[in-house]
Design goal:
- This protein has about 230 residues and is an alpha+beta fold.
- The chain contains nine helices and eleven strands.
- It has a four-stranded antiparallel β-sheet with strand order 1-8-3-6.
Amino acid sequence: MRETISKLAVSSLFRGLPREILEQIAQIAVEQTFRRGQVLFSEGDEARGFFVVTQGRIKVFKLSSEGKEQTLHIMGQGEPVGEVAVFSGESFPASAQAMEETKVLFFPKEPFMELIRRDPSIALRMLAVLAKRLRKFTALIEDLSLKEVPSRLASYLLEHSDSGQRTPQLIRLSISKAQLASLLGTIPETLSRILARMEREGLIELEGTRGIRIMEMAGLEELAQGARRLS
């Protein structure tokens, strides 16, 4: 129980809640482990509960009728997965798959909803997290619909860089380039070509399979904002 409470206390969904409430939440949590590639739920499945990642990473994605995959989110330690469908009373709008061996806490829908009815402060905390998720989703839709792939990639690199640190600075991707391509709404071959063009123009330097060294922060910012195009 103590270990579960500690995991809840650092999660984005429950951080800041009083210990007595965390204890109540911990009582309904079910620990589960998923192996790499295992599906937690598929699009259209009934939302019988939601998950909080305690170790590993989960990919949330959609598949087109032609089988093309679009990654929507990559969720890591402390982040909730599937909570929106639970509270909307609808089926899961996307699928979720473990990217590596992943441990989660599963919260069955009905017991959790009963907790919320008894203590609405839990719902207020969750509203803040859901609002943040909505902002990220809005930015994703804007990027996919309005920005070209080089701008999306530049935005991603800036998001994962330290704006206060002087360049050059090294970023190590936590996902493969194939997974990054899916997240950006493109294919690995196109991503590789864009990375090569960015390197030729002195914006970045590639180091190994997952290292990207930012060489010109201002140039990346111009590319992300659409004020610059790659030649």
